[in-house]
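A reminder before we start the practical. When you read a complex entry, don't treat the lines as separate problems. The point of joint prediction is that each chain is placed relative to the others, so the output describes one connected object in space. Small molecules and nucleic acid strands, if listed, are placed in the same frame. In the example below there are two entries. Take a minute to note the order of the lines before looking further.
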Amino acid sequence: MKFFDCKTAPSARLVRMFIAEKDLDIETIEIDLRSGAHLQADFKEKNPHCTVPVLETETGLHLTSSQGCWRYLEAHKPSAPLLGTNPEEKGLIADRIWRIDLDGFYAIAEAIRNELPGFRGRALTGSINYDQIPELAQRGAARTAHFLDTFEAHLLGENDYVAGANFSAADIMAFVTIEFAGWIKLELPPSAERAHDWYKRIKARPSAAL
Amino acid sequence: MKFFDCKTAPSARLVRMFIAEKDLDIETIEIDLRSGAHLQADFKEKNPHCTVPVLETETGLHLTSSQGCWRYLEAHKPSAPLLGTNPEEKGLIADRIWRIDLDGFYAIAEAIRNELPGFRGRALTGSINYDQIPELAQRGAARTAHFLDTFEAHLLGENDYVAGANFSAADIMAFVTIEFAGWIKLELPPSAERAHDWYKRIKARPSAAL
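Here is the predicted structure of the whole assembly.
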């Protein structure tokens, strides 16, 4: 198995943390996005979408999303379970992951890629160059603020973790997303005390240092 | 169990088809999006994000995304399997679903909701009103065209189904997305013969009539 990573990419960090929580030892290849390694022909053969993460399985299959990598690794090494062990857990974890990905992670990416000069002409990941849309950067920031403001009420609730009593991949998704929001200087509101306690608990895990 | 559906919403159709393929009989409640039933307090209590689909489980948990509903239902009734039975299948199906959702389904929604007069001030689903961004409608249509143009090469490949030799939820995601693209009059290119054959095979399934 091979893991194509990029230390600075939150998308790849989702898989890096998952691998660490599974205590798996996987050969890791660093893809330097800044020098455009992901747009070169040899990488494009592995992933036509030109993004990290990519996981190459033992049979040579290339999985090119955090979700594909997570599902493969969960089935490959079921312990510790990160995607749930019964219908309710499995459903709620998947639900939270999808919601945080769309309303949090994707909104932050919109805010960043449509504003920072370094992403001019590269407002979306992938093989096609799209121009920045300044209004979309503003909307992305507004959506991110709403995501952070409602995180405690809508996603954490009365639970210790994002999908209930146990740590799961939904916590990885939420933690990486909230640290990603720091790139545009947005954070959990000070009043969200339970959310801050949760954040500190995740931050203390060894996988969070990766 | 209760399924909150809307006959005209592609997001809900994803779950409707999945339920039919599982041969499950679930009490279904129609939510009339046109009259704003999803924005009323009683529905918002079930789903603060004000969207369909919603699945209410037997313990009263509310799952508010196709992904949450699918994972719950797959664990609740494992046959026929729609999310894979071994690590490679599970990984690839999840990978395809995520990709089609983001590059296809979401791009089409961007194109539609940022252009049609009926969505003025409602460019995103949810409880917050966002203005339309005309440039985003154009970008959404361009992304949709790229998705359809590369569907055969990137997603179907040499396989009979989107994630390999067997029908899976990735086919549901692709089929519903391709029919959704019809709303903006975009379709698979005539040259994509294998993709058209695949489409006809899915269209012939009883679940596709729902």
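Discuss with your neighbour: Chain B touches chain A through 51 residues (CB under 8 Å). What might explain this?
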